[in-house]
Write a structure and sequence with these properties.
Length: 419
């Protein structure tokens, strides 16, 4: 077993137990100054005085935080939709581009026309860039299949991707993403419940179900039926909620004990109160607000101040958020959503891991956790949002191994040659 020591950090991020962190617990996040993170094999062994190690990284002058957990992405997909963005920058709305030639349907077509290998390579390149930006755990979603066989194919490609990557990958079935052009919403949901979900469960292809509840997609009734069927089959429910219109879906998700309600741009004060009083996480996706130039932002400050569980994700997808960097998402969360830096880092690590149900393994720097960490080129994580166009990542370690080192930080790394 090889050992890794990340030593002499200016600040090591230490979050209070248990996950999730909400309310007053944010105050208990500590910066351990001068500490080293000692790892044996794939896990963290101790934090404090440095030991000797096969691999040693000098983190002096740097902050060390847990690897980012991106709890909402639409990987795997194939191809971009920059032309739609140009149309949006010219005044077109996201809704007006939701047609058989564009939007989710366009990505569905691109997926259908690409080979498995093409989708895998495209997505693997993005996952590699995510790793270099510090993401060591992420969610995958289906949702561009829009038929039983294509949804299964997308989920199988996600599993293939997972097996090839060092990151921890947690899959979600978002078959209820758009109404297939040859069906109506009721018909597609019936097919998903009766035909798709049993096969997804049988092949263990997803840990969660997700649904796009929106005027242009599905209803809360559909979400209720999907969540019940999914739960029976061992999948926990999530929902895209109140992104474009306030349909009261934040409240709905809290009442129905969904794992998370994601987006929440239009959610009312009532929805905020319902989420704050529940264990349903509010997953905020500022990359999509930024891309769509949405005037209405989620009531993030109210969510945090009233004690909701807040998590962050990139929402990486070719339509509403072609963004893969969690440091950039943290900067957006601080600047557009008014999160404080420490809240944003917790939301991008501990709480995001809690949403994915892997908070006992990742999202925290503590003995027994996976040795996933990011060394930042700054003395404190509070500075991540200060220079949003500067890459703050000096080094990334994933499962106790070097995953990325910035060229100018190579000299900080010592690897013993004795085996
Ligand atoms: O989370 N709006 C629903 N799903 C994605 C967008 C997918 C797309 O446009 O391809 C989202 O924003
Ligand atoms: Fe999404």
């Amino acid at each position: 077993m090889t050992s890794l020591v990340v030593r002499d950090a200016a600040a090591v991020f230490s979050a209070p137990e248990p996950a999730p962190i909400r309310g007053a617990a944010f105050e208990d996040v500590e910066a351990l100054s001068g500490a080293s993170v000692n790892c044996d094999g794939r896990t963290i062994d101790s934090i404090g005085e440095p030991r000797t190690g096969d691999t040693v990284f000098d983190a002096s002058g740097c902050a060390v935080i847990p690897g980012f957990v991106d709890c909402h992405t639409h990987l795997p997909f194939f191809g971009w939709r920059a032309n739609e963005d140009v149309e949006r920058l010219g005044g077109a709305s996201y809704e007006s581009l939701h047609s058989s030639e564009r939007g989710i349907y366009r990505s569905s077509q691109l997926l259908r026309d690409a080979s498995d290998q093409d989708v895998l390579s495209f997505s693997e390149t993005l996952a590699g860039a995510m790793l270099a930006a510090g993401t060591t755990t992420f969610e995958t979603k289906s949702g561009y299949g829009l038929s039983v066989e294509e949804e299964l194919r997308q989920l199988r490609i996600a599993r293939w991707l997972k097996r090839r990557l060092p990151q921890l990958v947690i899959p979600t079935c978002l078959a209820a993403h758009a109404v297939p052009t040859d069906k109506d919403a009721d018909g597609w949901i019936a097919e998903v419940l009766d035909q798709l979900l049993p096969r997804v469960a049988g092949e263990e292809l997803a840990s969660f179900t997700d649904i796009y509840v929106e005027e242009i997609a599905f209803t809360q009734q559909h979400a209720t039926r999907l969540s019940e069927r999914g739960r029976d089959l061992g999948m926990r429910p999530r929902v895209h909620a109140d992104q474009l219109v306030d349909g009261g879906t934040g409240t709905f998700a809290a009442q129905r004990r969904f794992v998370s309600a994601d987006h929440l741009n239009q959610t009312s004060a009532e929805g905020v109160a319902a989420l704050a009083g529940s264990d349903t996480a509010a997953v905020l996706l500022p990359g999509s607000s930024f891309t769509l130039r949405q005037e209405r932002k989620p009531a993030a400050r109210d969510l945090i101040d009233s004690g909701a569980i807040v998590a962050l994700g990139t929402d990486l997808n070719p339509g509403t958020s072609p963004i893969l960097s969690m440091p950039f998402v943290i900067a957006l969360a601080c600047r557009l959503y008014e999160l404080r830096p420490v809240e944003a880092v917790v939301a991008a690590t501990v709480n995001s891991a809690w949403v994915l149900g892997v908070h006992d393994q990742v999202g925290r720097l503590a003995p027994g956790y996976r040795a996933d960490m990011v060394v930042l080129q700054m003395r404190h994580w509070d500075e991540i949002s200060y220079r949003p166009d500067a890459d703050p990542v000096l080094a990334v370690f994933c499962r106790g191994e070097v995953a990325h080192i910035a060229p100018h930080a190579q000299s900080r790394l010592r690897t013993s040659t004795a085996q």
